[in-house]
Each structure stands twice: as C-alpha cells, then as structure tokens.
Write a structure and sequence with these properties.
The chain is of the alpha+beta class. 25% of the residues lie in helices and 34% in strands. It has a single domain (8-99), classed as 2-Layer Sandwich (Alpha-Beta Plaits).
Length: 100
C-alpha cells in the first residue's frame, strides 16, 4: 500500500512479557492496527534496555531478566493514529508511545 501525503511515525515501547487478554501485547497491538486498516506495522525485539523501573533487561545467556524490550513501529497518517490512541493508552500500561 502506497502512503500519500504527510505521515507520522509512531513507536510503541513495551516489554516482551506484557500481555493483553492472555496474548502477547505486541501481537494484540499489531492485530488491532491491522483491523483498523493501517498500512503496516513492524515489531522489533531489543537485545538490551531499561525503562521507568530502571531494571536492565538483556538477552545474554545469564539473563538479568527475560522481559526484553519490544518496539512496534508504524508509519501512517496522523488522523489514523489519533483514532487509535485512546485504545493504545488502555492497552499499554507500563510502556511508552511516541509520535514523530
């Protein structure tokens, strides 16, 4: 699908172990975006990171935590993104959403 006009980059930062209705949160978000007609979404798994709790999460063999960072990236019109922000705010409890 070719996107026309000005687009917004939305990044959604969550943890690998975050859940929404018994499924991985990142999967639930991607499924919701698809059902809303978004052109696409990409899920990226981090190898290391920390969030508001200042706990470092790493994919090393001797893990500090198994809750690795996950980023969902979406490029879409500002209007489409605004239409799902309330739902995303409800789903993303311990993460962060940024818009560029």
């Amino acid at each position: 699908m070719k996107l026309e006009g000005e687009q917004t980059l939305m990044r959604i930062f969550v943890g690998e172990s975050d859940r929404w209705q018994r499924k991985p949160l990142y999967e639930a978000i991607v499924e919701m975006l698809k059902s809303e007609g978004f052109a696409g979404a990409t899920v990226l798994k981090g190898v290391m990171g920390f969030g508001a709790g200042s706990v470092v999460h790493s994919d090393r063999l001797l893990r500090l935590s198994s809750d690795l960072p996950v980023v969902i990236e979406v490029v879409e019109s500002e209007e489409m993104i605004e239409n799902v922000l309330d739902r995303l705010d409800e789903m993303v409890c311990g993460g962060m959403i940024t818009l560029e």
